[in-house]
Design a protein that fits this description.
Elements lengths: L7 H7 L20 E3 L20 E2 L5 H6 L3 H17 L4 E3 L22 H16 L4 E7 L12 E3 L2 H8 L1 H6 L6 E4 L3 E2 L2 E2 L4 H10 L5 E3 L8 H7 L9 H9 L8 H24 L6 H15 L1 E5 L11 E5 L16 E2 L6 H6 L4 E4 L4 E3 L2 E3 L4 H8 L4 E7 L18 H11 L5 E6 L15 E5 L6 H10 L12 E2 L16 E3 L8 H6 L6 E2 L10 E11 L2 E10 L5 E11 L10 E10 L4 E9 L5 E3 L4 E3 L3 E10 L2 E10 L1
Parallel strand pairs: 1-3, 2-12, 3-4, 4-6, 5-7, 5-20, 6-9, 11-13, 11-16, 16-17, 17-18
Antiparallel strand pairs: 7-8, 10-18, 14-15, 19-21, 22-23, 23-26, 24-25, 24-29, 27-28, 29-30
Helix pairs in contact: 1-10, 3-4, 3-11, 11-15
InterPro entries: Cellulose_deg_GH3, Fn3-like, GH, Glyco_hydro_3_C, Glyco_hydro_3_C_sf, Glyco_hydro_3_N, Glyco_hydro_3_N_sf, Ig-like_fold
Pfam family, one: Glyco_hydro_3
GO biological process, one term: carbohydrate metabolic process
Amino acid sequence: MYIKKLSNIDKVKLTIGTDLWHTETLNGKLYEVSMHDGPIGVRKPIDTRSFDQKEIFKSLAYPCSTALAQTFNVELAYEYGKALANDAIEKDVDIILGPAINIKRNPLNGRNFEYFSEDPFLSGCMAYNYIRGVEESGVLSCVKHYACNNNEFSRNFISSDVSERALREIYLKPFEIAFKAKPSTLMCSYNYINGVKASENKKLFDIARDEFGFDGLIMSDWGAVNDTITSINAGLDLEMPYSKEHLEKAISHINNNKFNLNALNRAASNVIKISEICKENKEKQKISMSIEDKKALIKKINDESIVLIKNEGKTLPINKDSKVLVTGLETNIYLSGGGSSRVTPLGEFISLTDSLRNNGINASYYQTTEWRDNKQECITDLKGCCFEALKYDYVICGIGENHTLSNEGSDRNNITLSPVEVELIKSLRKYAKKLIVIVYTGAILNLFEIEDYCDAILLSSFGGEYVNESIKDILLGNVNPSGKLTESYLSNIEEYPAYNSYHDEISFVYEEDLNVGYRGLINNNFIDSIYPFGYGLSYSEFEYSNFSVYLDKDRVIVEVTIKNNSKYDAKEVIQIYSSEITRTTYRPIRELKAFKKVFIKANEEKKVTICIDKLDLGFYSTGYSKWILNNGLYKIGCYKDALTPIIEKIIEIK
């Protein structure tokens, strides 16, 4: 369809959806595009035309984005996107509203379970591969939320006030990386950025298109548009969902010069382009993954995402001939984040007790906790459970959060465990021979309240409906844990760099600037009180040697030999960080620049080569309004996590 054939009124109609989930067809002239929530599972209402969205089709419940990122495995991110695309094809969905790639600046953000990391490079890499998996399968992706949607508190009205350099290096960087995968659509956020509404932020739209090479359609988050005309003029293409008031107002102003007609033509053309792409995709789409393939992928992601936090005296893996007592409601129920990412699970949830029993383990369950009014309370027989624990070799206790605590639209109140959870674990410690705690959570919790009372701790993010199958295999040693934290776990909320930054009813001031997450923690010497970004134990011990760093034209080449000194086959994440020594301005002490997950058999030695684009060692200069790479000395290091160096070298860039 040629844009010149349309009246201006028809063009305006194209820029606003027709209901909650569909685009305008102009009486059948265009293909009707359907779009639905899908960052961590396709969430499609049974009645897509109604504004009542209570009934949802059942769908595979995938591990949340935090879990996916904790794998540090970009190949799994690609397969994840591919699986979601297959689900979308089955459910007749053209655009998946995901991935969500905002930075985990504040651990209290209610939507953190939807996001990948506190680190922009890791977030961008995972998003890049997720997008490839979706788009190469004939479904369109929608990268969101552009930009600085780092809190849910008053999200429609509050301004994220951030410096230009932090904006570029931290908050826009994941989008810059993700756009290289050529996503078809981009969703703006609700909030204001430095006083300008995201849906009206011409500066950010221009950066996306002119600097980052984004050439798709830009849509609004649902209800994020205050004024249709101002938004279209600024660079927005599509307002979602339908608003009768906004459409009538826009049409009434079409002939009084309030619309920039070039902007209107661009917006309408982009809607037409997406419609034509979706129509063409529909004719070529093929299902390439069975339900069993997707279940196997979910299992693989959970296998690689679960983080072994503590393993005192090699408590894990457990002896398969032992007797095991399981308690804690979280081991028995499906847990997920709330809001647009909460899907209705397709399958029947398998409890941890049943997972163990199905694998020949002598396991029993004793109920000690229940949810009441969205709070966990110890309302059953704790005394009886403690006495029962004396009969068992291991006690496994589940704790965590549900969708009412990690939820779109509101922030969490704190990172503390409930008093009941702490009491439960302290009580069990008195009677259990070995106490293992499983943490089911989509966001940071203060694990230091219980650390001294546990022999082992496994951290599982919201892993979907089959998460306990992976937990069981890690407990039994069938799977060697390889997950790494993608955000730093502290013992005190006040130690987080962003926590003490000023905010009120008008704005969040990003006072920590570049020092988000581990970048700020290193500066503030909180080394002894956290499980840092990149942290995660294994049943194996790894030996690093023959570390070398050299320049090859425009690339920094890192080579290292790694040996698995154990009887277990293992996967290890090699993490490469950099710091500029002869700097001319402030640089964070350490920044992740590369990572690679490698499989190493028991007692095997493997040489690994990692390449870094030399320009990625640079910084964004607000003086020159561009990225700068200084000549001088740089430290390149291989680290166990963001705080623990293994081996480092200094190179000179000329």
